[in-house]
Design brief:
The protein is α+β, with helices and mostly antiparallel strands and 113 residues long. It has one helix at 2-46; strands at 50-51, 57-65, 71-82, 89-96, 99-104. It is built from one helix and five strands; from the N terminus they run H-E-E-E-E-E. The chain crosses the membrane at residues 7-27.
Length: 113
């Protein structure tokens, strides 16, 4: 009887820890998404592009070491911009932890005369 009680007690702790980790990851993901939206807007403004749909989409989540050698979460976000009113350019930005690690905006035709 004591063994069953101990196993049940351990399972409850494991489930509690999993729940806490899941909630932390969910909250962290929401905050990083908001950061990615702001960074996408800043990149768009820097290159005189229009940030479309006011959103980003998380394409990939992996683990990578940062510049200090610590393991951090690398998130790849996709967003759309436009250089005119009738084109959509797919762009990417990469967050390593809470820092902008890299970004990609493909070549586009500027509408300036």
């Amino acid at each position: 009887m004591k063994i069953i009680f101990k196993i049940t007690f351990m399972l409850e702790y494991i489930l509690l820890v999993l729940l806490i980790v899941t909630v932390w990851f969910w909250i962290d993901t929401i905050s990083k998404r908001e950061l990615a939206i702001q960074l996408g807007k800043n990149l768009s403004k820097q290159f005189d592009l229009q940030f479309l749909d006011e959103t980003v989409a998380c394409e990939k989540i992996t683990l990578k070491r940062n510049e200090k050698g610590q393991v951090a979460i690398l998130r790849c976000y996709e967003f759309m911009v436009s250089s005119s009113t009738n084109d959509r350019i797919k762009c990417n930005l990469f967050l390593l932890g809470k820092h902008l690690h890299n970004w990609h905006i493909p070549p586009y035709i500027s509408m300036e005369i």
